[in-house]
Each structure stands twice: as structure tokens, then as C-alpha cells.
Write a structure and sequence with these properties.
By secondary structure, this protein is an alpha+beta fold. The chain is 52% helix and 19% strand. The longest helix is centred in the first third of the chain and has 36 residues.
Length: 569
């Protein structure tokens, strides 16, 4: 009998629907339901915002079906009323919630009129303190326990922002499960933001490379903007400071845009690759910095509109210097374009949704965040590549400083850095160390007779020979300057130091480099060597002087020989 009564009540409503007077009501049964009900509502406009719920119930406003299929209202001071009929086809109370995911709306009142005529009122929005909301949640959420029969719901909306109003009617237990999954996803996203920001901040503090500091602030401000606009700030941090919530979004938005531009300018190195855009980006970064500060004192609605509309232009502005730099084979421009393309594509999707050209969906609502995450992932690879480039450049610089360009062996600077520590180590272990100076005989005469290119070939040949005779661990060969070379080795590979050096001298002769102007008719070398006893103490300059004296003695004795000095202390 009860079901028959419900059917009779529905006949007039169904007849009116055929005439296009009303929107289609929503029917719920025993099966848990989760649906977008935006296309089922009727809309009325209250320009002055003066009508009460009683006046609305008595027909003071003219409602019209929502023909668009989704709800979007532009920046306005107008109050909008929504009307929805929900029919509970069961005989029991069905626990549902009305969910509006866009948490930034200012004031939302819900009026639920049950089949028996009684009414409950609830409120939510970011102009209400947390404790004043009907349900403690970051989104706009209302309990709608649906009695058997026809339930009517009115929703009054007011907001200075552009209003996307996705409406979802969800069974309570089903919503709780969906909400847990959503929070886990948000936790992952914000965790990525925090980790990336901290990593780049610590790297900036370690290297003092300001690009990493700018990148950390870029990530931080975008993360905080998302945190604020999604309602987490008001819900968890500044729930008792509505003014802070209102101002924080504009501050983080302007800061994010400013650091986006600043990062693009530094990352693309526009001073070198797109100078004409360097000034534009610097001005834009300064402009948004000033706007971020003004957001604390300027009218909220004005700053919001300026932020939203200028944000629509920024991705294209930063793309232009990237395209210019790309033409000059800028490797960083390639990284930027790869990260920028998916970001601008998804940003466009989000903007079309925000301005009401696309219906609301989770993908559309979070397209900008997804795009920035992809961009940050690409930029992270670029920053790692930058680190590798810096390390490689540093290693190359160190190599160039320590290596003799002509011969490819270590130079005098390397010798001055390494020789004293080798002596200290020998003293510590009370071992023995050998140091020899090898000098190519009559090298100046050879250069004069055969020319400097031939002389360079001689130096390279001698250097490679010395290197091949000193290839054990702990042994090193240096070009000390001109035609002089130094050799350092320990006792571990030296059963007979003089014999080893004699073999080396003969090896130089065996190169058979023609030199008709000398008695041997081939190039020769003189060698002076000293043994360092770790049980006695000698300074590196004293040791070098003793080896040089031995070399001088070898030359005085007619060259092409080895002079060996015993341990010094």
C-alpha cells in the first residue's frame, strides 16, 4: 500500500517532467549510490541575496532546469539557489551525504525538507569557522538522511570566487571509503612536494647554487597553494583565522607564479640564450613578488581575479624564452620544453574546467597538479643532470690543473700537492721512499737543431716511457718543468733502486731518438736519486734539493748516468 501511495505522488511530477518544467528527480533504493546530480538540479538567481528559505519555498524565485549538465558561476556577488528532489523508493531511512569537492566556496547553506514537511538546516564554506560547519571535513559536506518518499533539498551558494559546484549524492559508508582513498592520494602528492622541496633546499645549502634554492621555493609555494585551495589549511592549521585562509591562497598563488618565472629565467640561462626575454621574466618575477605582498592588504576579490587571469598567461610567457633558447641549442631549453608541454596541456584542461568550459571531474579538477608533478619530475632529472655536469666540470678542471697538457702526466702543481703527504706517510709507517729527477741531456741544443715540434715529441716519448716503468700502486711520475721529470716510489717495488733507474736510463737510450750533435748520436738522460728513510725527519724541499744535487753531479760526470744518494735525515 505504501509503495502504491508513492507511485500516486510521483505521477504529477512525471507529467511535469514530460513538459520540461522540472528537472529529473533522483531516485535511491537499497543499493549504495554515488552519483553526480548536477544535471538533476534546478537553478534560480537571487541578485540581491535577500530571499529567505521561507520565501523560496513559497515560490518567490523562478527555478529553471540546469541545461548545461554541470554547474559553474562566474565571479559574482550574486546568491544562487539550487533545488533538487530525491525520492527514496524504500520504506527505510537511507543515510546519504551531499558532497561538494570545491572547498573554496565562501558560504553554502543546505535546507533538507522531509516528506513530512519538517526541515533541517546545515552550513559550510571557507567563511565559516571549523566548529560552525555541520560536518568537520575539508570539503563542503552535508548529512542528508533520506526519509521514505520525496525529499526536497535547497542549496544557497555565495562566493566571490569563480564557482565550480560539482554535486555528488553519496551513500555514507561508500563516501567514507572514497574519502580514505582520496586522502591517501593527497598524502602521496604532498609527500612528493615535501621531499622534493627539502632535497633541493638542502642541496642549495650545501652548494650555495641559488637555482636549487629557487626550485625548492617553486615547489614549496605550489604545494602550499594546492594545500590551501583544497581546504587543508583551513581544516588543519588556521581553522580559527578565516582572514588568514582567505589571504593565504592569493599569497601562495602569486608566490608560486613568481618563483615559476624566476626559476624559468635562471634555469634557461636567458642572459646567454634569450637576452631579450631576460628582462621580461625578471620584471614578471618582481611583479608577482609585489602582488604576493599586496595580497595581505588588497581586496581579496581583486587579487583573486588578477591572480587567476594572469596565471592563464604565465605558462605561455615562460615558454617563449624556452623556444628562443631552444634555437641556440640550449640543453636546458630541451629539458624545459619536455616538462612544459604536458604541464601546459593539463593546465589548459584545468583552466577550461575552472572557467566553466568543461564539466567538473576529478581529472579536470586536478589536471594542473598532475601537470606540475610531471614537470617537476622532468625538472628533477634535469637538476640531477645539472649536478652531474657540475661534478664532471669540476673533475675536468681538477684534471686540467693537475695534468700536464703536453705529456699527459702529472705536472709540477700536482707534485707540490702530493710529495709532502707522501713523505709524511713514509715517516708515519717508518718505511722508505725514493725520489728521482730525470733530465733529458742537451735538450736545448736538440730543440735548436730539430725544432720545438720535434722537442715536444721527445718529451711525450720520455714521459710515456717513465709512466710505463712506474705503473705500480703508489708510484707516480711528474713533469717538473721543461725537460725535467720526477719519479716517486716506495720500497715495496724496489729491490734495487739504482738498478731500476739504470734500466730506465738505458730505456731512454733504447728509444733511439737521433741526435747527431752528441757523442752517443741518440738522445740520453741524466738521473739523480735520493732515498728517504722514514725513521729520520726531512722536509720535502730538503729532499728535492738533495735529488737535484745528485742530478747536477751526474751532469758534471759527463751526463747519461745515474747518481744515487743514500738516506738523508
Amino acid at each position: 500500500m505504501r509503495c502504491f501511495t508513492l507511485f500516486l505522488r510521483s505521477v504529477p511530477l512525471l507529467f511535469a517532467l514530460q513538459l520540461g518544467v522540472y528537472a529529473m528527480p533522483v531516485s535511491v533504493g537499497h543499493a549504495p549510490l554515488s552519483m553526480d546530480i548536477s544535471s538533476h538540479v534546478e537553478i534560480a538567481t537571487d541578485e540581491a541575496g535577500t530571499f529567505t528559505i521561507d520565501a523560496v519555498r513559497q515560490g518567490a524565485l523562478d527555478f529553471a532546469p540546469n541545461q548545461a549538465g554541470f554547474l559553474y558561476f562566474h565571479f559574482s556577488h550574486t546568491r544562487y539557489w539550487l533545488k533538487l528532489d530525491v525520492i527514496n523508493t524504500t520504506l527505510s531511512l537511507q543515510p546519504y551525504v551531499l558532497h561538494i569537492p570545491t572547498s573554496w566556496l565562501d558560504r553554502v547553506q543546505l535546507y533538507h525538507i522531509r516528506p513530512d514537511g519538517t526541515m533541517t538546516t546545515q552550513q559550510a564554506g571557507d567563511h565559516y569557522l571549523r566548529q560552525a560547519r555541520s560536518i568537520d571535513h575539508k570539503d563542503l559536506l552535508f548529512e542528508v538522511p533520506l526519509s521514505s518518499g520525496e525529499n526536497r533539498i535547497y542549496v544557497a551558494l555565495e562566493s566571490l570566487d569563480a564557482m565550480q559546484v560539482p554535486l555528488y549524492l553519496v551513500e555514507q559508508a561508500l563516501f567514507a571509503k572514497q574519502d580514505r582513498d582520496t586522502m591517501l592520494l593527497y598524502g602521496f602528492v604532498f609527500g612528493v612536494f615535501v621531499l622534493m622541496a627539502l632535497y633541493n633546499l638542502f642541496y642549495f645549502l650545501y652548494t650555495r647554487d641559488r637555482l636549487y634554492g629557487i626550485y625548492a621555493l617553486y615547489i614549496l609555494f605550489f604545494g602550499m597553494m594546492t594545500f590551501s585551495v583544497q581546504g587543508f589549511g583551513l581544516h588543519y592549521f588556521w581553522s580559527d583565522a578565516l582572514w588568514l585562509n582567505e589571504r593565504s591562497y592569493n599569497f601562495f598563488l602569486m608566490g608560486y607564479l613568481g618563483f615559476m618565472v624566476y626559476f624559468a629565467n635562471e634555469f634557461l640561462q636567458t642572459k646567454n640564450s634569450a637576452m631579450q626575454w631576460n628582462r621580461v621574466l625578471r620584471f614578471a618575477a618582481l611583479f608577482y613578488g609585489v602582488m604576493a605582498l599586496l595580497s595581505w592588504i588588497a581586496p581579496y576579490a581583486l587579487m583573486m581575479e588578477l591572480g587567476v587571469y594572469s596565471a592563464a598567461l604565465i605558462p605561455f610567457i615562460v615558454a617563449m624564452p624556452a623556444l628562443v633558447a631552444l634555437g641556440s641549442s640550449n640543453i636546458w631549453a630541451r629539458f624545459y620544453i619536455i616538462g612544459w608541454l604536458p604541464n601546459i596541456s593539463l593546465y589548459t584542461v584545468w583552466a577550461l574546467g575552472f572557467f566553466g568550459f568543461l564539466p567538473y571531474s576529478l581529472f579536470v579538477a586536478h589536471a594542473n597538479t598532475i601537470g606540475v608533478l610531471i614537470e617537476l619530475l622532468v625538472f628533477s632529472f634535469a637538476m640531477v643532470y645539472r649536478i652531474q655536469s657540475i661534478v664532471q666540470s669540476k673533475e675536468q678542471l681538477e684534471h686540467d690543473i693537475l695534468i700536464d697538457a703536453l705529456t699527459g702526466i702529472k705536472n709540477r702543481y700536482a707534485f707540490s700537492k702530493e710529495f709532502a703527504p707522501r713523505i709524511e706517510e713514509t715517516l708515519r709507517v717508518q718505511g722508505e721512499l725514493y725520489f728521482a729527477i730525470v733530465d733529458v741531456d742537451h735538450f736545448k741544443r736538440y730543440n735548436d737543431a730539430y725544432g720545438h715540434p720535434k722537442g715536444d715529441e721527445v718529451l711525450r716519448s720520455v714521459a710515456q716511457l717513465l709512466k710505463s716503468h712506474s705503473n705500480h700502486e703508489g708510484e707516480a711520475v711528474y713533469r717538473l718543468g721543461g725537460e725535467e721529470f720526477g719519479i716517486v716510489w716506495s720500497q715495496a717495488y724496489t729491490p734495487s733502486a739504482p738498478a731500476r733507474l739504470e734500466a730506465l736510463r738505458q730505456g731512454i737510450m733504447a728509444l733511439a731518438i737521433p741526435f747527431k750533435e752528441v757523442e752517443t748520436h741518440v738522445l740520453t738522460a741524466s738521473i739523480g736519486m735520493v732515498r728517504i728513510d722514514g725513521r729520520t725527519l726531512s722536509a720535502s724541499m730538503q729532499i728535492y734539493k738533495k735529488a737535484d744535487e745528485a742530478l747536477y753531479e751526474a751532469k758534471e760526470l759527463g751526463r747519461n748516468r745515474v747518481v744515487y744518494r743514500e738516506s738523508i735525515g
